[in-house]
Fold this protein.
Amino acid sequence: MLKNYITIAINNLLKNKLYSAINIIGLAVGLAACIIITLYVQNELSYDNWEKADLIYRINMRIPRVATYPNTSVLFLPALKKYFPEDIEFGTRIMNYYGEMQIGDMRYRAPFAKVDEDFVNIFKAEVLKGSLKNTLQSPDNIALSEQSAVQYFGDKDPIGETITFWDNDNEEQYHVTAVYRFISPKTVLNIPCFSLLEESRLPENFFKWYNHNLKTYIRLSEQQILISLFPGCRILSIKLFQSAGLLNPVKNRAI
């Protein structure tokens, strides 16, 4: 019986070749589109799966009738912590650099970041070697991602090694104190290595409200606090630098 059904189906396909081809191609294209959309959505949802990701936000700066920027002033996070001490559990600033690293006789072009101590409380990482706590105790220490450690040192243990970093004409030396792997393997954070952000080493002009030279992230204490924090954040930013503050969720949002 089944053999007869198959034979009849094949005969019908052969008798109506044009319509059969149109139907088969349409079905194939529809299935392919469905699979591609599913894979795309699945890939997007796999980014930034941090612990308590729904409580993590990036502070945006919106200048009315001009534009919205993902950067803020160095002064913004301390002000937030001062005015909303119970609402904000953790906060960190991320200042990104792009320069040249020298390890021994080898030089590499690479991104680099300076962060606050709460960075590792918001964006959890598995420590493979050394200690991230020690890294963030001194601005002279640096932590490398697993990929960066392999790229720069191969099979050699990088702990204790010295890295020289050039950004424009500034030269800084760091001691490798940790190797890490983010618990969220897919993230919009492009941070292959980081060290402590030391305010005393920043140029004086960085401490101006109109200088938006870094990104600011916070993790709220409670999800519902966002409703009460949002208007207060706007009032605070208007009062301090005559622009409005916005909060964008980190989860599933590209920076």
